[in-house]
Amino acid sequence: MRVFLLLAAFFGFTAVALGAFAAHGLKSQLSADYLAVFQTGVHYQMVHALALLALALLSVHLPGRALTLAGGLFVLGILLFSGSLYLLSLSGVRGLGIITPFGGLAFLGGWLSLGVAAWGLTAR
């Protein structure tokens, strides 16, 4: 699960950088609504970067398909959910908003997969 640890570091780093960029560089460029949309993307990216970190650490003790699936879905969710919010707020193209719910579904699937992995612990 080294890849999830690397992705956690990458997404955590870029979430901090994007949050700072929004607070200092975009504050005067975007409307308050679009700035809030951008910050929502940053928030969900950071939460799921931390989830990836936890998965990477947990996978040392509990390897399995459910955790691998959860990590993959968290990555997909970050790309689709946060990525679409970044693009929407920077471009103003509202049609990009149709992608966002698919990222949300990926996040939900990731958390469900984590639950499945946890459920398997009680059966052992």
UniProtKB/TrEMBL annotation:
Keywords: Membrane, Signal, Transmembrane, Transmembrane helix. It is found in: Membrane. One of its GO terms (cellular component) is plasma membrane. The chain crosses the membrane at residues 43-60, 67-89, 95-121. Residues 1-22 form the signal peptide. Pfam families: DUF423. InterPro entries: DUF423. It is a multi-pass membrane protein. It comes from the Bacteria. Belongs to the UPF0382 family. This is DUF423 domain-containing protein.
